[in-house]
């Protein structure tokens, strides 16, 4: 049995590749089922956010299982596993302890484009819960993801990693406020999307010192109205996008739509109705909501997820000093996790082995009961004690070796050998 984490993130992979690999909430059950169809995987979980897509898996056959995980990514990317592709260049693979360490660092916010990002902790928790709900994960990944959430909480409570602006949504609004000035006071803002990112953007808009005029758009009019109510904003359906853009100064977009919502031809129509007024577009969605061609039009400034990451980088210098302490916490928790894994994997086999040995010892004593009755009580007691010590000494070395190897491929082989040899 091997634990692996395979995936890519926005710091190392191009945005167009991230778009092809992104797995939305509706796609997740099918993606997990596809992974679990492999006879070489016993557990799987998927962590897919706007800046990363990663598969965590427990492999029964390492090389075959890893090939199946790679094939899963190639299928989504529309590439072939044969030869070296752009996908192969950007995929990262972590094994066993390194896989656990990576997930712990992700949950702690130490591996995010926005250092200390708060949203990633919820996303890690949701990924674990969704894998369990789809019966794709089991004791290994279930325990790993629960522990990762504990690590994320501890890192945020014991360090300053989460100090300041720590979400892409807040970075998006802060950047827009810098570009437009006056804390967005008096600006007409079009907020498209009512998911988690949209809610966070709404929260950031609500905390602006200015008073922007906000219109919330969504495919669901009811969701748009609920989000707009908290802002004192107006709600509209997504069909009104072009019309509303005619009067907007800023478009903030973060939906989970599979394709673009604003293409270049629609943007040209909007620009003709604006009388030359500039338009700032911040597209925080993956896949993109806005066609990159829109950013090449006169009068439009387009900020995409890559630019948001670069802007966020400038604001995290004060938190960089906290990373070392976060990594110390990760290492402490990794050791605690290893201890727990050892206990979980070795204890049942050791317990069964000792129970089987004790049953044999008792059966042999019972078989000789009539002869033992001829001994005086002190001798019977001595013989009973001798038999216990003998069994304990015989089991001592197998027990020690199994505990030392627990949680590794060697430990699994030893455990399986004991199960077969002693019919456990």
Structure in a nutshell:
The protein has 424 residues and is of the alpha/beta class.
What does the model show?
By secondary structure, the protein is of the alpha/beta class. It folds into three domains: 2-164, 2-Layer Sandwich (Beta Polymerase, domain 2); 168-311, NAD(P)-binding Rossmann-like Domain (Rossmann fold, 3-Layer(aba) Sandwich), CATH 3.40.50.720; 346-422, no CATH class. The protein is 56% helix and 13% strand. The chain has helices spanning 15-21, 28-36, 62-77, 86-90, 97-108, 119-133, 139-158, 168-180, 196-206, 221-231, 241-245, 264-272, 305-314, 317-320, 323-367, 369-372, 377-405, 409-422, and strands at residues 2-9, 41-49, 52-59, 92-95, 188-192, 213-218, 234-237, 250-253, 279-283, 300-303. It has a six-stranded parallel sheet with strand order 7-6-5-8-9-10. A four-stranded antiparallel sheet has the order 2-3-1-4, sandwiched between helices.
Q: How are the elements arranged and paired?
A:
Layout: E1 2-9, H1 15-21, H2 28-36, E2 41-49, E3 52-59, H3 62-77, H4 86-90, E4 92-95, H5 97-108, H6 119-133, H7 139-158, H8 168-180, E5 188-192, H9 196-206, E6 213-218, H10 221-231, E7 234-237, H11 241-245, E8 250-253, H12 264-272, E9 279-283, E10 300-303, H13 305-314, H14 317-320, H15 323-367, H16 369-372, H17 377-405, H18 409-422
Parallel strand pairs: 5-6, 5-8, 6-7, 8-9, 9-10
Antiparallel strand pairs: 1-3, 1-4, 2-3
Helix pairs in contact: 5-6, 5-7, 5-15, 6-7, 7-15, 8-9, 8-13, 9-10, 15-17, 15-18, 17-18
């Amino acid at each position: 049995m091997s634990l692996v984490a395979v995936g890519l993130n926005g710091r190392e992979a191009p945005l167009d590749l991230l778009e092809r690999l992104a797995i939305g909430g509706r796609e997740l059950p099918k993606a997990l089922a596809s992974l679990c169809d492999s006879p070489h995987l016993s557990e799987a979980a998927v962590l897919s956010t706007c800046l990363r897509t990663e598969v965590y898996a427990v492999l029964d056959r390492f090389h075959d299982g890893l090939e199946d995980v790679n094939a899963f990514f190639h299928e989504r990317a529309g590439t072939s596993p044969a030869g070296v592709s752009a996908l192969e260049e950007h995929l990262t693979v972590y094994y066993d302890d390194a896989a656990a360490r990576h997930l712990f660092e992700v949950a702690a916010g130490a591996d995010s484009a926005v250092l200390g990002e708060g949203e990633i902790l919820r996303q890690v928790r949701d990924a674990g819960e969704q894998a369990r709900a789809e019966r794709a994960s089991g004791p290994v990944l279930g325990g790993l993801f629960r522990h990762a959430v504990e690590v994320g909480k501890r890192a945020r409570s014991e360090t300053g990693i989460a100090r300041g602006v720590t979400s892409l949504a807040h970075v998006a609004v802060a950047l827009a406020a810098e570009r437009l000035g006056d804390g967005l006071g008096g600006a007409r803002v079009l907020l498209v999307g009512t998911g988690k990112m949209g809610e966070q953007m709404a929260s950031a808009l609500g905390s602006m010192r200015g008073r922007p005029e906000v219109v919330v758009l969504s495919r669901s009019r009811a969701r748009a109205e609920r989000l707009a109510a908290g802002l004192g904003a107006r709600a509209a359906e997504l069909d009104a996008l072009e019309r509303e853009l005619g009067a907007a100064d800023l478009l903030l977009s973060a939906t989970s739509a599979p394709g673009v919502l604003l293409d270049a031809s629609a943007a040209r129509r909007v620009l003709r109705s604006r009388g030359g007024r500039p338009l700032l577009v911040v597209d925080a969605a993956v896949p993109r909501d806005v066609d990159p061609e829109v950013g090449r039009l006169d009068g439009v400034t387009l900020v995409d997820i890559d630019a948001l990451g670069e802007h966020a980088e400038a604001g995290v210098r004060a938190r960089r000093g906290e990373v070392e302490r976060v990594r110390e916490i990760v290492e402490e928790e990794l050791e605690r996790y290893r201890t727990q894994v050892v206990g979980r994997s070795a204890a049942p086999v050791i317990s069964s082995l000792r129970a089987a040995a004790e049953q044999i010892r008792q059966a042999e004593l019972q078989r000789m009961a009539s002869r033992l009755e001829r001994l005086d009580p002190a001798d019977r007691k001595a013989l009973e004690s001798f038999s216990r010590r003998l069994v304990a000494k015989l089991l001592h070395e197998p027990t020690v070796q199994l505990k030392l190897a627990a949680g590794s491929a060697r430990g699994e082989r030893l455990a399986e050998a004991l199960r077969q040899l002693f019919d456990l």
